[in-house]
Fold this protein.
Amino acid sequence: MSERVKEVADNSFAREVLQANKPVLVDFWAEWCAPCRMLTPTIEAIAEEHSRVISVVKLNVDDNPATAATYGIKGIPTLILFAEGKEVERIVGAAGKDLIVRTIAKHARWESTEKQAA
């Protein structure tokens, strides 16, 4: 896993996600889920490219059922974007990078990766 993607658990979710000072993309996943594993490189790329303005975390739903239940996770992968401690966007299924980035861009201030690299 990328060093920019952090694992969270039921006992760290509030601190790492709800109390964060920037938007947080949460990847709800499970080890046995093939679409979740296919999405991993995309999630890691987004975390690398946009770490200045968002945090990216993964929560294993099998190991952390309380948080998964709290947010009504019925299918995985599910991506939820939190801003100021509240859910602001949700994507269910293995979405493409462009859709995920456009969704995040509605709630996070960032420059394009070209401007960040300059």
In short: Residues 49 and 113 are 7 Å apart (CA to CA).
